[in-house]
Design brief:
single chain; alpha+beta; eight-stranded antiparallel beta sheet; 19% strand; globular
Length: 332
C-alpha cells in the first residue's frame, strides 16, 4: 500500500548549498544541508539553514538511547557501554563484545531482533562472505545497541520478545530520556533501519543533547561520555572517521548516523549537529569538519585535531581510479 505524502521539514526544504563535488576543477554536483552549533546554555550560537526543523537522527541518537538504558539499570561500562552507543564495523572484537553483553544477561544471538546483515567494515565483510556465512543480526552494525536493549529488559523484568515495540517500557523510557537530555519532546516515531523505533527531533535539540552529554562530570551521562572517549574503536571501528574524531579531539564525543547525520558534543557544553538534505554520506563529515574549524577547534594547543579533521575531510573524487578532485564544504 502506498504511504500518504509527508510534509518536508524546513531542515531539508530550506537547506542551503553546503558542499560542492569538484571534479578536475569543475563543480559537478552540490549538496544542500543544515548545521547548528548550540552554546552551553542550549541557545543557538551558529546556524546554517533552519535547524529548528525536525530530522530523524538515526544512529546519532544511540548515546541518548544508551543513556536511557543506564538510567534503568544497564550495568555495562567501558568498552561494552561504548558498543551500546555504536554503529560498529563488525570486526571480530565488536562481535565478541556483543556476545559478552548477551551472555552476561543469560541471552544468546538468537534473541537479537535487529536486521540481519553483513559486517560494515569492507575487510570484515569480504572475509565474512568468503567464509560462506549468511547475513546475521550479530554482524549488523546495531547489534551492540540491541544486545544492550535486551540486557536492560532482563534487569527490569521486561518482556525481551517485544522490546522493539514503541509502547514497550524500554522504548517509553528512551522517549522520556530523549525529551530530558535534548529539552525537546520527540515528534513522529519511525522504524529505524535496524528495526527499533527512532524519534524525530529538531536538529537544534540533537546538538543541545550532545553538548549536555559531553559536559557531564557525574551520573549516567558521564558514564556514557567516559565510555565513548576511552573506547572510540568500539563506537565505530578501526578505520572509521568517528573513531578518529573522538580519539583526536580531547573531551569530544560524537556519533554518526545514516542518511548523513552527524552530532558532536564538546567538553565545554557546546553541541554541533549536521544533516545533509539528500542523505549523501560523502558530504556529511566534510561539512562537520568545516563547522568544527569555524568554531575554533583547530587551535594550536590541540595538535591531534589536525589528524582527526584529515579523516573527516578525506573525500576524494576519482577519475580512472585516481584522485582528480574532492568534496569541499562551502558557505559554512
Amino acid at each position: 500500500m502506498p504511504h500518504p505524502p509527508a510534509s518536508t521539514s524546513p531542515a531539508l526544504s530550506a537547506a542551503p548549498v553546503v558542499a560542492h563535488v569538484v571534479r578536475s576543477g569543475v563543480v559537478e554536483s552540490v549538496h544542500h544541508g543544515t548545521a547548528v552549533v548550540t552554546a552551553p546554555d542550549g541557545s543557538v550560537e551558529l546556524a546554517v539553514g533552519d535547524p529548528e526543523g525536525a530530522v530523524l537522527p538515526r544512529s546519532s541518537s544511540k548515546p541518548f538511547q544508551a543513556l536511557a538504558m543506564v538510567r534503568h539499570g544497564l550495568a555495562t561500562d567501558g568498552r561494552l557501554l561504548s558498543l551500546a552507543c555504536s554503529s560498529h564495523s563488525g570486526e571480530d572484537f565488536h562481535l565478541e563484545a556483543v556476545r559478552e553483553i548477551l551472555a552476561g544477561a543469560g541471552l544468546s544471538e538468537t534473541d537479537l531482533q535487529n536486521t540481519p546483515d553483513y559486517p560494515y567494515d569492507e575487510a570484515a565483510r569480504t572475509a565474512w562472505i568468503a567464509s560462506g556465512s549468511p547475513k546475521q543480526s550479530i554482524a549488523q552494525n546495531c547489534s551492540g545497541k540491541h544486545a544492550s536493549m535486551l540486557a536492560t529488559c532482563v534487569v527490569n523484568g521486561w518482556d525481551p520478545a517485544t522490546y522493539r515495540d514503541p509502547g514497550h517500557p524500554l522504548q517509553v523510557a528512551i522517549t522520556e530520556t530523549i525529551a530530558d537530555i535534548t529539552g525537546s519532546r520527540p515528534g513522529e516515531v519511525a522504524v529505524d533501519g535496524c528495526g527499533a523505533p527512532i524519534h524525530a527531533i529538531p536538529l537544534t535539540a540533537l546538538a543541545r543533547g550532545f553538548g549536555r552529554l559531553a559536559a557531564a562530570t557525574d551520573g549516567p551521562e558521564a558514564r556514557i561520555t567516559r565510555a565513548i572517549r576511552a573506547f572510540p574503536e568500539y563506537l565505530g571501528g578501526t578505520t572509521r572517521d568517528v573513531t578518529a574524531l573522538v580519539r583526536g579531539v580531547d573531551g569530544l564525543v560524537a556519533k554518526d548516523g545514516a542518511e548523513a547525520v552527524y552530532a558532536v558534543g564538546l567538553a565545554d557544553g557546546r553541541g554541533v549537529a549536521v544533516k545533509i538534505a539528500d542523505g549523501s554520506p560523502r558530504a556529511r563529515s566534510v561539512v562537520l569538519a568545516a563547522v568544527l574549524r569555524r568554531i575554533g577547534l583547530e587551535a594550536p594547543d590541540v595538535p591531534a585535531t589536525v589528524d582527526a579533521f584529515a579523516a573527516l575531510e578525506h573525500a576524494p573524487v576519482l577519475g580512472h581510479g585516481q584522485p582528480v578532485g574532492s568534496v569541499v564544504a562551502v558557505g559554512v
